[in-house]
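Write out this protein's structure.
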Amino acid sequence: MDPRLIELGLDVAALDAKNVRQLDEQGFTILEGVIDPIWLDGLRDAFEQVYQAEGAEAGKEVAQVEGVRRLADLVNKGVVFDNLYIQSQLLSAVWHVLQRPFKLHSVNGHDPLPGYGQQGLHADWGGERSTGRYHVVNSMWMLDDMAPDNGATRLVPGSHLLTETVPEATDDPLAPHPDEVYLCASAGSVGIFNGNAWHGCTHNRTTSASRRLLHCAFIAREHAQQTNQKEHLRAETTARISPLAKYVLDV
């Protein structure tokens, strides 16, 4: 673990051997029950409040997607989000994958509406791929139950170990992959995956079900952030967060 995180007060939580093995071999793991019921209610309420307040502008700091309720820059949009990016098990998993100092990449929200959401397979790291040298870890904070019919993320196990890219390996990234699995779990769970793994959101085939996720991603410290916190961090956020959080944000 990065000694600076420990110096700043991180209570390191060891990952179960099963989680470690899944990250190494499959490229993902799921931690159940990370979000307690009170916090879960708070995150759901905050998701809706931010989206309603921002309306057509929601998500514009990073990307807006047709048919998807997007949120971005959530570091600055409520106290309820402050503990996402300093959760001890998550940071232990990020360190295990990256094996070097890292920082927050971004915290965003994603909710595909019924009839929308299908993505082509892709990786979150777009640079050169090499086995054992990774750059990005993403996490999915599940505010609703994730199921195959409501737009759950699909992922190709072991694809983080491949040096080829999705375009090199397949003619149609939108098509089902023969080895893909759906990352399904109950609300309150957190899925963690290697940014080299091929993955993508799927079609929400329900007529009304929400599939709200918060994506909390990290990147090796030598790279640029998706949301540059030195440029975006608001004074009120700076005033309330801990030295540990400031280090993770790289501010």
